[in-house]
Amino acid sequence: MQENTIFKPLYALTHTPINAYFSKNSDDFVVREIPLYDFSGEGEHLVIEISKKDMTTQEALRALSDFSGVKIREFGYAGLKDKQGMTTQFISLPRKFEEKIANFSHEKMKILSVNAHNNKLRIGHLKGNSFFIRLKKVMPSEASKLAQAIDAIDKMGYANYFGYQRFGKFGDNAAGGLELLKHGTLEGKKLKNPKMSDFLISAFQSDLFNRWLSKRVEISRFVQDFSLKELAEIYKFMNVDELKSLKEQKQFFKLIKGEVLGHYPFGKCFLCEDLETETVRFNARDITSCGLIIGQKAYKSEGMAKTIEDEIFGEAMEFENKMSGLRRFAWSYLENVSHRYNEEKAHYTIDFTLQKGSYATVVLEEILHKNIFE
């Protein structure tokens, strides 16, 4: 079997691995999409909320298309959902198909609600997703560790890495994206599907983002654990004043002057110029750090923040003009967190909400400190 080559970024927490069994099935993993806005109740489009079990979003669209006659391109959706587990999401279609969709029946999918709306749904038209996760075979000692880890992440936030889904079964999507950027071909052949090319290149961008964010987590951990003298030996590109500015910050994830920040949970990007003021706002969760998705349109960092980015992204700058680029929240927060332990069944259940584009599997790996699918 081919070796998995997915880069494993650093955890922010430092506890030992927690023993618990996780299976991404429809009983133990449930995802509910949260729409960005209320639907108007009028208009030329129909928005249906579907629940699906062990189906991709594309498979669900195909089933709806086969039943109703709606063409795939006429559907709209806010985001793709995993195949495994039970997921709910909103799908739009032309309202003229309302009668045909009324009697829809499928063994793995059902329609939960129907609303009229003025617009077709587009990618990104969601507020976030809520998650229910059930862990099994949890002993009382492990349950205590789980509670501590969840409470710690709820309090401090989490590193908003891209999840394994981006990188392919064997972790080779990013390498494929780099090959396309270098040569315009994959294994010597041009790809006929432009969406596949875009996806592989986005995997390359995501891999670099994860490597950069892992470096920032490393710096934050080292600043917390080492003296100024030791840090000066480790990070020779930082001067004493820069190291002191990191050491003075009490929160785990350290901000750096010249980095790109963004208003949280929605808002524009800007440069971190007044570090003391922005640290206060960061701790109030009004703003957060924004990592680089490399490309020509991405907001530029400055100073030491750029030096750190250049270490990770430097070689990829050669291809910057071939990618659009943007900024992505590097440090994010859980919302609506609850968790409980059923000692009799040895089950531990966790509920939380994430901003769009964040991965529950990333949060779960941070909690458990191990590969959740081993």
Spell out the blueprint of helices and strands.
Layout: E1 29-35, E2 45-53, H1 57-68, E3 76-77, E4 86-94, H2 98-102, E5 109-117, E6 126-135, H3 140-156, E7 158-159, H4 173-183, H5 194-225, H6 228-234, H7 240-247, E8 260-263, E9 269-271, H8 275-283, E10 287-293, H9 303-313, E11 326-329, E12 331-332, E13 335-342, E14 347-355, H10 360-368
Parallel strand pairs: 1-4
Antiparallel strand pairs: 1-6, 2-4, 2-5, 3-4, 6-14, 7-12, 8-9, 8-10, 10-11, 13-14
Helix pairs in contact: 4-5, 5-9
Domain TRUD: 157-345
Organism: Campylobacter californiensis
EC number: 5.4.99.27
Provide structural commentary.
The chain is an alpha+beta fold. The protein has two domains: 29-127, TruD, catalytic domain (Pseudouridine synthase, 2-Layer Sandwich), CATH 3.30.2350; 159-332, 2-Layer Sandwich (Pseudouridine synthase), CATH 3.30.2340. 32% of the residues lie in helices and 23% in strands. The chain has ten helices and 14 strands. The strands form three sheets. Strands 1, 2, 3, 4, 5, 6, 13 and 14 form an eight-stranded mixed beta sheet that branches. A four-stranded antiparallel beta sheet has the order 9-8-10-11. Strands 7-12 form a two-stranded antiparallel sheet. A hairpin with a 5-residue loop joins β8 (260-263) and β9. α4 (173-183) crosses α5 and α5 crosses α9 (303-313). It is globular and about 70 Å long.
